Amino acid sequence: MNRTMAVAHKNKTFATFLAAFLGAAGLHRFYLAGFRDFWGWAHLLATFLGLLLFLAGGNRPAFFSLMPAILSGIVAIIEALVIGLTPDDKWDARHNAGSGRRSDSRWPLAVLLVFTVGAGAIAVIGTLARTFDLLFTGGSFG
Q: What is the pLDDT of residue 95?
């Protein structure tokens, strides 16, 4: 008996949401590529390492302890933008070739992308500002 396995349809809006909100933990990578995805594990490890360094304390600013998790989050925001801005036909060719369904992104994706751009800009500017504050003034501004 010849059975064809149907491939699960990967929703682009949901993948963008995962990358924007839970991307530092690599959940979007696991959703798209499964648990064998190297970069998903790299995201998860960076977040875990940042939290472990933060909890360990020590004689360093908490901001620097959390830096692996912060950088993983910033990379995830960039990935959210790449996922969300991929045209539907290219998305389907890459992630939904065997699903038998077509993607049709609508306004929720656009709203999510606007939020992601804003959050990403705040994250990058805040990270740069705090880094320069700690490195050049010793944390004088907080």
A: 92
Q: Could you state, in chain order, the average pLDDT of each consecutive group of 10 residues for the chain (142 residues)?
A: 67 97 96 96 97 90 93 97 96 90 93 97 96 87 66
Q: What is the DSSP string of 19-46?
A: HHHHGGGTHHHHHHH-TT-HHHHHHHHH
The token pair at 8 is 């699960």
Six token digits for residue 39: 């970069």
* Structure token digits, residue 30: 């696991």
* Reported pTM: 0.88
Contact assessment for residue 116 and residue 77, using Cβ atoms and an 8 Å cutoff: yes
Domain boundaries, position 67: 12-87+103-137
Count up the domains in the chain and report the number: 1
Burial label, 70 (beta-carbon count in 10 A; 0-12, 13-18, 19+): buried
